[in-house]
Amino acid sequence: MSKSKKLSTAVIYGSARRGRHGIKAARFVVRKLEERDHDVTLVDSEDFDLPLLDRMYKEYETGQAPESMQKLADILEEADGYIVVSAEYNHSIPAALKNLLDHFQSEYLYKPSGIVTYSAGPFGGVRALVNLRAILAELGTPSIPSAFPISQIFKAFDDDGTALDTVYDERIVRFLDEFEWYSHALRQARNHQQCSADSPIQQQMCRGQIKKSL
Ligand SMILES: Cc1cc2nc3c(=O)[nH]c(=O)nc-3n(C[C@H](O)[C@H](O)[C@H](O)COP(=O)(O)O)c2cc1C
Fold it and tell me: Whole-prediction pTM value?
């Protein structure tokens, strides 16, 4: 498998609560990906002024989407894969995260995702994890088999995203090994895909590229 070009990975995080704890987990994941030489962008819902969903990005004419939505679309389009970092709110994912994810569609296609969940309690957000797998599959970015649940988030990392228990440094290795395997494999498959407007199947396979070239 060719691994010559750096992997580009977007870490997507969406809790809008003041004093939110999960940003530390997102920073931890960013650090670990950087250590593995990824081009990493932290997509924090707070940095993008997205409204509650009205029009999806694809519903705007080219060049007419609001600037922050365009910026986000470019990041998602550029990425080879996504690590989604999610809290558990009432056994599901935060509204801010769902709202961000729902604005986009073709940008995700044929790229893998990895799921990181967390909670204040002992279960690490595994019920949100189950929900998130279904959502990501529907969006077209199927999640890798391994996941990374974090319990007692308030004492897991410092503000810079350094793990306060080395168990996280150890556990994340296998998770990111697997994520990289899928990222390389799907990038290779996308690169070999002939995008022709003639074939309906290929049109679907290459939706993103065809939309751009027409
Ligand atoms: C609205 C809401 C719902 C929550 N629901 C759950 C839950 O279902 N399961 C759980 O383990 N923790 C739950 N919690 C506790 C969160 O795991 C904890 O507050 C965590 O720090 C939230 O992430 P954040 O600080 O990044 O927003 C909930 C918290 C909030 C604010």
Answer: 0.92
